[in-house]
Amino acid sequence: MLAGKRILLIIGGGVAAFKALTLIRLLRERGATVVPVITPAGQAFVTPLSASALAAEKVYTELFDLTDEAEMGHIELSRDADLVVVAPATADLLGKMANGLANDLASTLLMATDKRVLVAPAMNVRMWEHPATRRNVAQLRADGVLFAGPTEGPMACGEFGPGRMAEADEIATAIEDALADGPLKGRHVLVTSGPTHEPIDPVRYIANRSSGAQGTAIAAALAALGADVTFVTGPADVPPPAGVRVVRVETARDMLEAVERALPADAAVFAAAVADWRVASASDSKIKKEGSGSLPALSFAENPDILATVSQMVEGRPRLVVGFAAETDDVVANATRKRARKGCDWIVANDVSPATGIMGGPDNTVHLVHAGGVEDWPPMSKTEVGRRLANRIAEALGDMP
Ligand code: CTP
């Protein structure tokens, strides 16, 4: 239910705008107050009068409306809501949002808000698949924007494919999920993810095969349970999830700094595959083959151990610290020793031998090692591992004072 919730609904210009009227009705039935904003293009499809009649609220259309600014400025309008919803979110609106444009009422509200934003994209399939839209969507997801749809199906333009706006009841459910109080509401959880890159010179680096998929799935599951997630990620293959605060880093030392800056946290999950060593003195200029006469010799220095550093903090240690153990032999025995050596509470251990396909693959087989013993989880998708771990974290924090 949405009782007492206030939703600012921005209606963009698309044939699907008619579904926004149904959405207003559904949201009001579920107890919400809906304040509609209709873009000039949106007004070609639905009239402010119909939106106002269904919402029983004033409808906003102009950025520079002196009466509105006197009664309620656009900053206040954008912050007065519990959630900002854009439906239909056209390619144009997504582009403006991704690039920080603020040249009309809708885009200015989206820039000015301090609340979460949920978009329901609607556009022709070619426009949805255009590289520019792909870039904008990836950027918006990284910014924490929530998405409802689009779905696949026949479109008003006669084509078929993804780009069709989700139905009003699906958007209403996504809005309820976004506003629900999960068991981790009010908890700050830090997650590290991805590989690190350790420079050799300005163009070369040492890396590992981590895709960042498992850390991303964990962060997404924690956010879905209502946690406030700080996601510190190395250069990963998969984009960061929606609804988390993303901090991008390159090296292990950058990652430690970002982690220390993000503390305090209630719990921390160290899923990153941090490079154990860095090149002792990375060259400031490109190492040349020509005329050097010999092969370059690399010498290494040890990187800080982020998990051990945080686990052994005397002050400000998160109440629950979870590490990973990527092993190729004696998985559980090595993980059990690793837990003791690093000083963390739990270790999620997995076998990353090439034959398992876990590094970079969609599935994972893990063992959860804690003070009480070892739990062997059956093989499952990385998404499911993320969900189970997030639920366990919620239970553990719930049991702690
Ligand atoms: N880790 C870390 N900082 C490092 C190295 C590892 O925070 N410099 C964390 C990882 O994020 C993971 C855990 O430590 O949660 C274990 O990583 P792993 O590479 O398996 O352990 P190592 O300490 O490198 O042990 P070994 O190489 O001996 O297996």
List the keywords.
Rossmann fold, eight-stranded mixed β-sheet, 21 strands, 34% helix, binds cytidine-5'-triphosphate
Q: Find the count of extended strands (DSSP E, 2+ residues).
A: 21
Structural category is alpha/beta
- Any idea what the radius of gyration is? 24 Å
Oligomeric state of the chains present here: single chain
CATH architecture of the largest domain: 3-Layer(aba) Sandwich
- How many distinct folded domains? 2
Shape assignment: globular
Largest sheet descriptor: 8 strands, mixed
Proportion of β residues?
15-25%
Number of helices: 14
Ions and ligands: cytidine-5'-triphosphate
Fourth CATH level, the homologous superfamily of the largest domain: CoaB-like
**Weakly predicted, low-confidence segments:** none
What is the CATH topology assignment of the largest domain? Answer: Rossmann fold
Cα(first) to Cα(last) distance is: 29 Å
- Mean pLDDT, all residues: 92
> What is the CATH C level class of the largest domain, in words?
Alpha Beta
Characterization of the model:
This protein has two domains: about 5-180, 3-Layer(aba) Sandwich (Rossmann fold), CATH 3.40.50; about 190-400, CoaB-like (Rossmann fold, 3-Layer(aba) Sandwich). It contains 14 helices and 21 strands. The chain has helices at about 15-30, 50-55, 65-70, 75-80, 90-100, 105-110, 125-130, 130-140, 170-180, 215-225, 250-260, 305-310, 330-340, 380-400; strands spanning about 5-10, 35-40, 85-90, 115-120, 145, 150-155, 160-165, 190-195, 200, 205, 230-235, 245-250, 265-270, 275-280, 300, 320-325, 345-350, 365, 365-370, 375, 380. Helix 1 (about 15-30) packs across helix 9 (about 170-180), helix 5 packs across helix 8 and helix 10 crosses helix 14 (about 380-400). Cytidine-5'-triphosphate binds near residues 192 and 270.
